Amino acid sequence: MATLTFKDFKSDQEVRWCPGCGDHAVLAALQRALPKVSQALGYEKERYVVVSGIGCSSRLPYYMDTYGFHSIHGRATAVSTGIKVANPWLTVWQACGDGDALAIGGNHFIHAIRRNIDINIILFNNRIYGLTKGQYSPTSKFGAITKTSPYGTVEHPFDPGSLVLGAKGTFFARSLDVDLKLNEEIMTAAALHDGCSVMEMLTNCVIFNDGAHKEIADPAVRPDRTVVLRQGERMIFGKNNDKGLVFEDNRIKAVTIGEDGYKEEDILIHDAHANNLGLQMALADMKGPDLPVALGVIRDVKDITYDDGVRDQVKDVMRKSKIHCVDDLLRSGSTWEIK
Amino acid sequence: MATLTFKDFKSDQEVRWCPGCGDHAVLAALQRALPKVSQALGYEKERYVVVSGIGCSSRLPYYMDTYGFHSIHGRATAVSTGIKVANPWLTVWQACGDGDALAIGGNHFIHAIRRNIDINIILFNNRIYGLTKGQYSPTSKFGAITKTSPYGTVEHPFDPGSLVLGAKGTFFARSLDVDLKLNEEIMTAAALHDGCSVMEMLTNCVIFNDGAHKEIADPAVRPDRTVVLRQGERMIFGKNNDKGLVFEDNRIKAVTIGEDGYKEEDILIHDAHANNLGLQMALADMKGPDLPVALGVIRDVKDITYDDGVRDQVKDVMRKSKIHCVDDLLRSGSTWEIK
Amino acid sequence: MQHKVIDTKDVVIRFAGDSGDGMQLTGSLFANTSAIAGNDLSTFPDYPAEIRAPHGTVSGVSGFQVHIGSTKVNTPGDYCDLLVAMNPAALEANAKWCKPTAMILIDTDSFTDELIKKAGFKTNNVFLELGVEDRIIIPSPITTLTKESLKGCGMDQKSILKCKNMFTLGMACFIYSRPLEYVNSYIEGKFAKKHPEMVGPNEKVLKDGYNYAANIQLIPNTYMVKPAKSLEPGLYRNITGNQAIAWGLLAASEKSGLPLFCGSYPITPATAILEELAIYKSLGCKTLQAEDEIAGICTAIGASFAGNLAVTTTSGPGFSLKSEALGLAVMTELPLVVVDVQRAGPSTGIPTKTEQTDLLQALYGRNGECPIPVIAAHSPANCFNAAFYAAKIALEHMTPVILLSEGFLGNGSEPWRIPTMADYPEIKPPFARGVLKEGERFQPFKRDPETMVPQWAIPGQKGFEHRVGGLEKNHEGVLSSDPANHQTMVNERAAKVAKIADSIPELKVDGPDSGKLLVVGWGGTYGHIKSAVDEEREEGKNVSFAHFDYINPLPKNTKDVFSKFEKILVCELNSGQFCAYLRDCLPDFKYDKCNKVQGQPFLVKELVEAINKEI
Amino acid sequence: MQHKVIDTKDVVIRFAGDSGDGMQLTGSLFANTSAIAGNDLSTFPDYPAEIRAPHGTVSGVSGFQVHIGSTKVNTPGDYCDLLVAMNPAALEANAKWCKPTAMILIDTDSFTDELIKKAGFKTNNVFLELGVEDRIIIPSPITTLTKESLKGCGMDQKSILKCKNMFTLGMACFIYSRPLEYVNSYIEGKFAKKHPEMVGPNEKVLKDGYNYAANIQLIPNTYMVKPAKSLEPGLYRNITGNQAIAWGLLAASEKSGLPLFCGSYPITPATAILEELAIYKSLGCKTLQAEDEIAGICTAIGASFAGNLAVTTTSGPGFSLKSEALGLAVMTELPLVVVDVQRAGPSTGIPTKTEQTDLLQALYGRNGECPIPVIAAHSPANCFNAAFYAAKIALEHMTPVILLSEGFLGNGSEPWRIPTMADYPEIKPPFARGVLKEGERFQPFKRDPETMVPQWAIPGQKGFEHRVGGLEKNHEGVLSSDPANHQTMVNERAAKVAKIADSIPELKVDGPDSGKLLVVGWGGTYGHIKSAVDEEREEGKNVSFAHFDYINPLPKNTKDVFSKFEKILVCELNSGQFCAYLRDCLPDFKYDKCNKVQGQPFLVKELVEAINKEI
Ligand SMILES: Cc1ncc(C[n+]2csc(CCOP(=O)(O)OP(=O)(O)O)c2C)c(N)n1
Ligand SMILES: Cc1ncc(C[n+]2csc(CCOP(=O)(O)OP(=O)(O)O)c2C)c(N)n1
Ligand code: SF4
Ligand code: SF4
Ligand SMILES: [Mg+2]
Ligand SMILES: [Mg+2]
User: Fold this and answer.
1) Which of C161, C279, C291 to mutate to test the interface with B (most CBs of B within 10 A)?
2) Positions of E strands within D336-425
3) Are A276 and B285 in contact (CB under 8 A)?
4) How far is CA B194 from CA B31, B200, B217, B224, C21, in A?
5) I need a labelling partner for A9 at 20 to 30 A (CA). Which of A305, C1, C36, D189 fits?
6) Neighbours of D132 (CB within 10 A)
7) What is the mean predicted confidence (pLDDT) over B278-300?
């Protein structure tokens, strides 16, 4: 098998996102991650299928030189599910926006997670409807002023991480559009995860929601307001790497190492592989001003996947059943002869 | 206002559930709770609207002598949302099955929770599709053998509690169909809660899933396999009231008071009113063999409701705007005269 | 008393009781017994939406009608020769279906004052109140007799009472001279492994019912319906429409070599198709019980893209939900079979009742110019072929196909001569083959100039990477909002569907191919219309009959056929939907209509009246 | 040079540039300026789906056409008198819309080799390549001049470049003798508060553009379109169709005394209705941006049950998703307005382009017999009345009503004489009133025998507790699967809709009310057909025109009108959907068709040709 490079995943179609849109960086990370994944798992290019819904972010399949399916708004996850279950040999990547996946597509999203279908979902969360020109989305902040909320929204946003964990997701990671390195890392981990992997990419929409994530994305504050979780490592963050997370009074708390008697050993060690929904929920749910936003792979646990389950059951029944062709079937059970 | 009794809430329609169906008990609890709620909050009967989707459980509105809306499969939550937002003075109760609310209706369900619409959702979880005669539902146990899974399901069930918390629900309670007293208690708490209240009722379907919850519902094992959480009380359970829950190693653990050095003071005190998603998630997620299933009100926190938010915003804009009637509107902005 | 055994051409029996009385089973067993005895037959289960509706209420009555005959049987029959009424409510709900010569068999034990009142009777003289006092009444204390029969057999009271239906079945078998072997073998099949102790008692109570009927003096005659000579020799089985659809799809999967994928959400009366397919994993079939109907069709579209024979099955409201995704299937030009087992609407309507009211939705219920072939099954057994050919068209013409069935067909059954798969044609999808030249790109919407069908390149095929989707594209698969391209693609998608007419059978005329009146039907009304037209022709009337299995496109010779008749009468179980479609497709003819929207099949009688009005 | 000012009846100007070039704004400002100057006008924005499509590409070109006239203006015009092309791609995409006498104004600075190539030109002689070398070309270095104009004004380069469109607008204002006041006042309104420093530069660059045009020698003539005398005196405003729908609904809310509730999900091109309504909370309007279209309609149905004037707005694919819930609205007989702003389909299709392809879906796209009134708006301003009367019918006849608009109407605008609400009729829903007698129960489906309309009892009303739902019920509101009841309810629901014909206006004929040819249209093609028929009549042809605002039910006199013509030609932007409907409703006539499915409005020219073929 020839080694694939990022060029192999670039299609001949012109990329039509606005200059400065956060989606460009995510596409680049994907085009860089897939050759590595292919190398690691021995996948040929024709094995990839990239699926999407409708939205700016959902244009992604056109830019990937793979089999692609630009479906309808909200239904990408259902289409992906069908592809993967029909042919588990294919490797399915999905691009969808916060509106696409969490508004109209919310149900398919949580059901794919529940079933643990082995697909890789990149959730482009720019907290706005881009393609339809700037209405609020289910992740827009409370009070957001948008075209459909001229006086501010009065609804609480979803936190995709909590929702994924609430649906018993086996893999959830979060990152910023611009962090190419972390994104490649996350995408690779997602590809290696056997089950439904959700990657929330916090993207910027320069046109309709510029600075969507600036409270944490701004390089000046990023080290203090985010913590990158890595398997087996302590949850340490901060410009000076002197802050950390501990669990006290049934909650997570941010502390400064060296202050109030906290030592490095007190800091929690991240275990994405542990099936600890309570703690992982607490981590996914962290936000300012008291707590940093968690980035990286927050949860990555093993569990049976639906697509394998279906395939194995089919194999099993095939072995056990006496009906091996339609003629058998037609003659099975109660029949009678007329002469 | 005349005092209402449970008879006032009984309609003249014959109840058409199977004899022995768990839904009967839930109906009875509701008919008993509403007079109390009415008393406490000064509600007249005509203020109640009972909404449902489609399913055996969704027949409930016919049996309540209130305004009722038996909508379509999965859409009850959207209909309720419309009713409540259109007229927040009405008090909306909703009945829906595990299929209705969590399969086809999953999206409306999580969005109503997210928006924190002040409606009271009774989720009849019998882990099966009753009305369509016995197919598995999103809460059917892994491996369940049903009409559509003759060889057992290969998909993980939702845990409605986790899902509600994942959507940042402000109120979640769980109970068994037969526990009339606890159910009345929960329903009253839900009515008093300003926001979206989800009550999961673990119901039995004698026809298609008899013993749906027998591992915990069976009176012989119930005390040991369930813990009833009550605000401000310690999480103690067991036939002899000697077991309790503690938080250790970032997880909840069940211990026996008096063994391994555990004292009553070590046992967690339940605080449904605290906004502690991590811990409440851990509680909602408890299951055997190691942990008891939590019953009672698991989470009950205050937050702005969508319906109030909308109403207040309308009032606010009305006060501030210069446009008070359509004639004003038509003449606002840029106009010109033709003579 | 020595009963006179009267030979008769056909009889109709209607079993009716509480939802819990087991009438569906009783009816099926009687039907199967008759089938094995060589009769032709047709069944019609008619049950309420409630699982166990309250005991003794009219709304809770569950019925099962079976029509057996020694000649071709086309319908379950308008009126019955024997009504079995297990309680007053069953009598009240069904007495109107009794022929003037009918027998009425009741369980007198259930005709208590309380239950008589509950059924809505004003007096205790129920027969008089219903105006059926002149029928042959066979009052039998079935409950008491069943209890007696099973006394001391070790069964508990509840289980004993459940055997009432077996006693009744025994009686019916006596009246119609049916042997008990088949029912006995059913009992053995059901209980032998898990509850061997149940075999004896069940067989006993059946036999006791038979003997009781033989001994009482209330049954004036017994009847014999001889084997149907019209049935071709061969191996037969009884089959319901839903089962036949499932099997037809499995057959298409085998003939195309593509695994079957069914993404569906349960809904009455279509659920049984999904349930049936869920069993046949051994044929490589995958069923996905989706979270809703939209996911049902979208997973199927995904599976189709991935190269499976993809199917989604549903009924009325669920079909509505698939509207948007149907458009996606049209745009992506992927094969897909969408089965709609129609039920009484609108909205939730009357879920367990039959209707043909989804036709215009099937034809037009999508945004944009969005043509989809529509095929309708005409009898339970015909569902097999209808499903097979729906799949064949979908796969060979790269298009979604809508297959319309009806509750009446889905739940109803008839004997079916088992075919051999070798007699069915191969299915050959237009797979993209070969290797592309250096720099050449696969063009997903380049068409075969004859059929207008594009090629199918399935993910995994090296070098054929391409994108499909819901946006308008050009032949190369590149997005295009060019006005001329859009018109071209709209026209080509329409032409692709229209050209299917080249590969479907011509419309056949039953009766003279020209004349005064052509009666036109489609779908599940076939048997009733056929019976009515036959009846009329026997009376010497100048009537012919043309039944449409293929609706979009219409058979090529439709215009020819129509042009040879003075009048055309379109009969359907809706307010005139096929007629509206014909008026658009063939506006040169004048169409009269005969319609019924009652959640019930036509009565042959009603059709005869309608025909008589025309001529 | 002293320019000759030529008086002209009407001119068409087409502004085209990159999505980021601000052509939509430029066009609107020019239109408003002309409106205030007293012209009649019609606009047609034509933009791509991408937000900021790649710079310089043909697919990224955004256009805005405006037609101004001194007499009645019915359409945005087929071809233009002035094409403004901000770059080669804009020229390439739009040159075909130039009249033989047209001027073409280009920004020469953007005609670089690179951009010329990017636009797909093979040579640098772009005009020759396009075959428009004989037009009057006005090459102007707009970018350079804009930069010069704003040098030293303190703005950054990016902001300066954004002002190119103001320079261009200034030029256009000169060419068509438009005063700059309106644009200046717009600039002040926009910037005065937040960015007062921007007012001066913007006004300057506008003026500089105007002066530049006055000074160069390239513009042979300037033009003057006098105020339209045909415009009735009164207060006017410019209004888009989407805005007019929102306002019409607010008007109905006021006239009915019921709060407006809009449950919608954003979708192009309908979103602006939701956005517009979201602003007018001061009129008591509530908007709920739902999680999807199904929730949009279901929340609206809930709001209707709760006593609001309930509305849901959408476009094609979203409309498909509402199919099932529409059935619920029909069954519960609750008032509801469903607005579908049609766009090019099927599926996602071409979202920003216009079409009339959802008509049959609106009429038939639901399971069961499920009749819903359908109304269509025929011009941007007419959307106000269409929405008002849709709501009136919904509320007074207790039914969902589908209001069809089109992208062309929704985004397009025209001057509108502002009405006074006092001139509009009250809206009187059939509220259940009074007190019930002891033991009496409210009957939710008891009907007014005249209109077949049931009463509306809103939760909160003491004693009127009742249940509605999707299952079939009898008049009392009790579930019923009785066949006769079902037929009755099906018939009554149909009759209720049919009887709306008693309260809608009769069909009007434009032109002689009998003759050779009647041209028939519906919806947004009004202006184009009207222009074509006018043109033909001016040429002495025997042609009349009848336009349908009310589609289901049809106006009562439709048959009468049709019967007086020899031929009927149905023109629509689909493959013949209204024609199909007419063939069913009025099968006695022969209909010819003129259709176009290109995501674009008709050209008057195309219609004239079609008419000529008929006569
Ligand atoms: C059924 C349907 N409803 C609505 C739309 C309109 N629509 C297209 S994309 C979109 C939302 C886009 O937001 P998001 O999913 O967050 O993607 P983004 O553009 O921000 O990347 C909407 C509402 C549609 N295309 N189809
Ligand atoms: C659109 C639509 N899809 C499917 C159905 C069929 N259906 C009715 S109820 C039901 C599920 C019932 O299960 P659940 O919601 O758990 O309620 P239960 O009967 O168990 O109380 C289904 C699939 C329907 N009525 N409408
Ligand atoms: S509108 Fe926003 S999300 Fe869409 S392409 Fe532009 S920047 Fe990206
Ligand atoms: S089928 Fe099950 S859920 Fe439905 S009424 Fe009977 S027992 Fe209850
Ligand atoms: Mg977004
Ligand atoms: Mg259930």
Assistant:
1) C291
2) 336-342, 374-376, 400-406, 413-417
3) no
4) 20, 18, 30, 33, 47
5) A305
6) 19
7) 97
Exposed e or buried b per residue across D304-313, where buried means at least 16 C-beta atoms within 10 angstroms of its C-beta: bbbbbbbbbb
Average pLDDT over residues D171-176: 95
Q: Is there a contact between A61 and C325 if contact means CB atoms under 8 Å apart?
A: no
Which tokens sit at A300? 């990555």
Amino acid sitting at position B300: D
Within 8 A by CB and 6+ apart from D433, the residues are none
| Token digits of residue C195 | 């509850």
The tokens describing C110, both together, are: 């259930």
Closest CA to A226 of A175, A161, A182: A175
Residue A148 φ/ψ, nearest 5 degrees: -100, 0
Of the partner residues A138, A165, A279, the one whose CB lies closest to the CB of residue B250: A279
Cβ–Cβ under 8 Å, residues D607 and D535: no
Q: What is the 8-class DSSP label of residue D80?
A: E
Mean pLDDT by 10 residues, chain C (615 residues): 80 93 93 91 87 84 94 94 96 95 95 94 94 93 94 88 94 94 90 87 94 88 89 92 98 98 98 97 97 98 98 98 98 98 97 97 98 98 98 98 98 95 98 88 96 98 96 96 96 98 98 97 98 96 97 98 98 98 98 97 97 95
User: In whole angstroms, what is the distance from residue C345 CA to residue C597 CA?
Assistant: 9
Distance A157 CA to ligand 1 centre (A): 17
First to last CA, chain D: 50
Query: Ligand 1 pocket: which of D51, D267, D291 to mutate (most atoms <8 Å of CB)?
Result: D267
* Residue C235 CB neighbour total at 10 angstroms: 15
Q: How far, in whole angstroms, is CA C502 from its chain's centroid?
A: 27
For residues C57, C58, C60 and C65, what is the CA-based torsion angle, rounded to 10 degrees?
140
Residue D19: its pLDDT value, please? 85
Token code pair at residue D91: 């020229």
Confirm if D40 and D61 have CB atoms less than 8 A apart: no
Ligand 1 centroid – CA B136 distance (Å): 32
Phi first, then psi: give them for residue D310, nearest 5 degrees: -105, 140
Give CA angle at D23 (D21, D28), nearest 5°. Answer: 145
What pTM did the predictor assign? Answer: 0.96
- pLDDT value at position B1? 61
Mutation to test the C interface, candidates D19, D342, D347, most C Cβ within 10 Å: D347
Which of the four pLDDT bands, split at 50, 70 and 90, describes residue A1? low
pLDDT in tens, B102-149: 999 999 999 999 999 999 999 999 999 999 999 999 999 999 999 999
Q: In terms of DSSP H, where are the helices of C75-198? A: 88-94, 113-118, 126-130, 142-150, 157-162, 164-175, 181-191
**Torsion region of C100: left, alpha or beta (phi above 0 gives left; psi -120 to 50 gives alpha):** alpha
- Phi first, then psi, for residue A229 (nearest 5°) are -90, 130
Residue A329: Cβ within 10 Å count: 22
Would the CB atoms of A148 and D287 count as touching at under 8 Å?
Answer: yes
Over residues D441-472, the pLDDT tens digits come to: 999 999 999 999 999 999 999 999 999 999 99
pLDDT tens digits, residue range D117-155?
999 999 999 999 999 999 999 999 999 999 999 998 888
Rounded Cα gap, residues D488 and C521, in angstroms: 23
DSSP state of C427: -
pLDDT at C1: 47
* Pairing of β C467-469 and β D413-417: unpaired
Distance from CA of C90 to the nearest CA of B (A): 17
> For position C190, what pLDDT does the model report?
87
